[in-house]
Amino acid sequence: MEKPPTIKDVASLAKVHAATASRALNPQTRGKVSTRTANRVLEAAKSLGYAPNSAARMLRTKTSSVAGVIIPDLKNPVFPPIVRGIEDGLREAGYMALMGNTDGDAEREHELLLAMRGRQTDGFILATGRRDDPSPADHVPTVLVNRRTDSGDIPSVTNDNNAGVHSAVGLLASLGHTRIGHVAGPRELSTGWERYRAFVDAMAAHNLDVDPARITFSTAFTEEAGYIAAMRLQLDVTAIIAGNDLIALGCYSALEERGLSCPRDVSVVGFNDMPFADRQRPGLTTVRIPHYEMGFEAARLLLERIANPATPAKRVILPVELVRRGSVAPFRQAT
């Protein structure tokens, strides 16, 4: 049986000392060697199929090269491409992701955090953050993805919710809609609250009335919660902006139950451009977020935080794009 390559083999191929190769292969110490040398060592390791002995590294450096990643809902199609970006970003630095799903249960999240800390994870990427979440008590490096806290003391990677909702309102206004409703996400989550606030601001920017009866809040970012919230909307709306795409699908169901057609009677706009949004009937007009890039950037931010825990918390906001499909149409006067 062929012996697996060692750090000395990698060093020999890269023409560096074994200690230099070790530093280049460890994300914690890679900055101590030149970029050119680090790339040469990484290329040598890749060509030899070298896999670091993680147990030995953990004993030597007191790090595990494992990051905990916790998401709120495996059934939400927006999260798989985000997770793929996280995994790719971590893998480039020699890290792996330890995944957990909470199903929106705060107690389950607490259990996962404790269990992962017990496995000596070096840090966390959380897609479960709430607006009032405190900083981690044990100061473990943590980054929020897709959500953030009101205080901003935890690093985060989010999307430009404000620009996205403004573009959606602008489109509907340009099509002649004035009675625009909003089926918002949960208030306790930054995604729900920021998009609601952006809706109010955008309506004012277009001199359109914001009738409280045309705004409802969903209890979750799910199709079922969206349906329930949409059924509470005032019946005179001619367009709806939903808190996310799943809520928008719930709006589709509510409109159908009321005998209304989308987009003939009511236009609908979602948010996220989740996979298969274009295959709905009608195809969902929505605000596209950079799913993969958001995950990749969250991984980069966490690695930066692990290397320099004392640096101030950064907030990264990624651009979005409005994608028009068949779920919107010009305002049509009822006859």
Give the SSE map:
Layout: H1 7-14, H2 18-25, H3 35-48, H4 54-61, E1 66-71, H5 79-92, E2 96-101, H6 106-118, E3 123-126, E4 142-145, E5 156-159, H7 161-174, E6 180-184, H8 190-205, E7 215-217, H9 223-230, E8 239-242, H10 245-257, E9 267-272, E10 285-288, H11 291-307, E11 315-318, E12 321-323
Parallel strand pairs: 1-2, 1-3, 3-4, 4-5, 5-11, 6-7, 6-8, 8-9, 9-10
Antiparallel strand pairs: 10-12
InterPro entries: HTH_LacI, LacI/GalR-like_sensor, Lambda_DNA-bd_dom_sf, Peripla_BP_I
Protein name: HTH lacI-type domain-containing protein
GO molecular function, one term: transcription cis-regulatory region binding
Description:
- By secondary structure, the chain is α/β, with parallel strands linked by helices.
- Helix 5 links the parallel strand 1 and strand 2.
- The longest helix has 17 residues, at 291-307.
- It folds into three domains: 7-61, 434 Repressor (Amino-terminal Domain), CATH 1.10.260; 66-159 and 291-318, 3-Layer(aba) Sandwich (Rossmann fold), CATH 3.40.50; 161-289, 3-Layer(aba) Sandwich (Rossmann fold).
- A six-stranded parallel sheet has the order 2-1-3-4-5-11, sandwiched between helices. A six-stranded mixed sheet has the order 7-6-8-9-10-12, sandwiched between helices.
- The chain contains eleven helices and twelve strands.
- It comes from Kibdelosporangium phytohabitans.
- GO terms for molecular function: DNA-binding transcription factor activity; transcription cis-regulatory region binding.
